[in-house]
Amino acid sequence: xxxxxxxxxxxxxxxxxxxxxxxxxxxxxxxxxxxxxxxxxxxxxxxxxxxxxxxxxxxxxxxxxxxxxxxxxxxxxxxxxxxxxxxxxxxxxxxxxxxxxxxxxxxxxxxxxxxxxxxxxxxxxxxxxxxxx
Length: 133
Description:
Blueprint: E1 4-8, H1 12-22, E2 27-32, H2 35-45, E3 49-52, H3 61-70, E4 76-81, H4 86-95, E5 99-102, H5 107-118, E6 123-124, H6 126-132
């Protein structure tokens, strides 16, 4: 399944690289650099999956996700972040995320997360899964 993916991270170089890594397996329909843009583009384009950072200007990834979920958008969310604090992982899943991946992980893991989340299943990086249990 080729999912449509929207990227949200405040580092343009990072989203440019992500786009090149994800494009062979999934259709990247855009990249935004802050939470407000994420709300606007996600509501317009209705991606299958949003990959978002937690820390972004104007509106963080969690609050943007909450807003989009309350708007009944069927988009599924993956948090891609440097934050490995278990309380943030729990908060992200309570807010509606289906995936949580750390930026230190490899490309194969992110592609696997997109595939799982696009199908509606949960993905948690193995680096944190044990701590959650």
